[in-house]
Amino acid sequence: MSQPQLETPNLQTQKSYWDQLNDFFFAEETPYALALVRILFPLALLVGVIPRWFHVRELYSLDGAPTPFWEGYGYQDLPIIFSPWIAMAAYTVMVCCLCTMSLGWQTRFSTIVVLVLYPYFGLTDYLSTLTKYTVVATHILLLLSMSGCGRVWSIDAWLAGDAQPQKAAAWPRRLMQILIAVVYLGAAVTKLRMPEYLSGDLMRFWMLTNTNFANPLGEWFSTNQVSIVAMCYITLIWEIVFPFLCWRGLTRTVVLGLGVFFHILTFFMLGLLVFPLVYIAVYCAFLNEEEASWLGSKLKSWGGQIFKLFPAGSPRESLFGRFHHALFASALTVITLLAVTAEAQMDLYGEQRAEGRHVLTPISPEREAELFSGDLKIRPIDKVFAFDTGTTLLGGQLANSRSEFRRGETLVAQCMLTPPHEDIWLEIDLHNSDNLQVDRFAIIAPREEVRVYATFPLREFLEPGQYAVVLKLQGREVTRRHVELLP
Q1: Does pLDDT of 313 surpass 50?
Q2: Angle (deg, nearest 10), helices 84-103 and 32-49
Q3: How many other C-beta atoms are found inside a 10 Å radius of the C-beta of residue 381?
Q4: Number of helices (H) and strands (E), helices first, in the chain?
Q5: Quick check: bond before 420 cis, omega within 30?
Q6: Is residue 407 classed as helix, strand or coil in its secondary structure?
Q7: Confidence band for 37, pLDDT divided at 50, 70 and 90
Q8: What is the Cα 249 distance to its own chain's centre?
Q9: What are the E-state strand segments in 274-366?
Q10: Structural domains of the chain ordered from first start
Q11: Is the pTM value of this prediction over 0.90?
């Protein structure tokens, strides 16, 4: 009689957390997502780089007025500022390498060159060239230079002639994802410490300026304070949850979609241009292999037309394939020499003119006296940003703007002051149709406050008719809002 066999438990094999972490960073994948970043990211940087090419002599050379970052830390003697022709040559090489990086021609070399020159020019002119996206872009360039982003959808891959795309470890893409997530989380922590952001005032004043580029919707949207505050809180919540929801599934689609929408809005409402393009390009790092392959196939159908310019047959045996290193170096040298020559012909300072070099024109004595006269007295009306009336406060903001009221309601008058300002004695009075004061509110608006509001209960003894809400600063009337009390 056979002995009964004992049943062994079916132990479900499950990877340890260490193995999952190892797979997260070092799993082999075809670098389609990184190839998309490599294609789109340099094009986003070129939007800001190309316009500055015409001002290299002024911004980055000894012949102009560079503002090196290191001088702010006491290192004035560092000999890192180049002469005009060297600065122009280096800048042109950077522009060319951004183009070849996007095409995937000598990808690693091009990326390393941009990695060195792009932050250098930013540090040389920290007043206008060095921005937040310069720092993010430098980290992305570093990760791209160590990745296999040129193994697919590139001239290098076409020259290699491999039947199957080469795989690479996922860690450069993962570090890009972590970088973006940490940047968003850090931005959220900064916003939490800024009462001006949470109140919407910072965003509102930014919308009314053209510090970056023209913002078509900013000035119009700045009139709706409640919507601004709502958008500020939505953005803050989105930045906090992004690092936890951006990895997979429906939540990844939602937060990435909101991110694209948010960055597009920053152009129309805040005038940002390169910043949103850079982040949208890096979002491709969040695509998995299948998604990036599908999206890249759409680009490949267009980019594949480029390779029809080359002769058929083995890429390595073609004329371009045999001499592509020499062609790359020759193209870089010729374009750089042409750019240096063209910049010299521009004659920025008029050195080649018959009448000689341009000279600065002295200002008039009146203008000189005005500049050295100190601060002029600011009129009280210039300290008022907005003055409005309504009935509802939401989070310290006037939620509705009204000029018609009924008895029993509470009239809310809100005054927004333009920062910075000193401590101001502020009065808000309610006058009837005979300009007689029927109610009064007075307070000292401290220098750290931007918004002051007064409430006036519309009691039964007030007769229906026309009224005026009068704003006074330092005892002087600045403006008034006409309102109507309906029967």
Answers
A1: no
A2: 150
A3: 12
A4: 18, 12
A5: yes
A6: coil
A7: very high
A8: 27
A9: none
A10: 25-339 (no CATH), 380-486 (2.60.40.1930)
A11: no
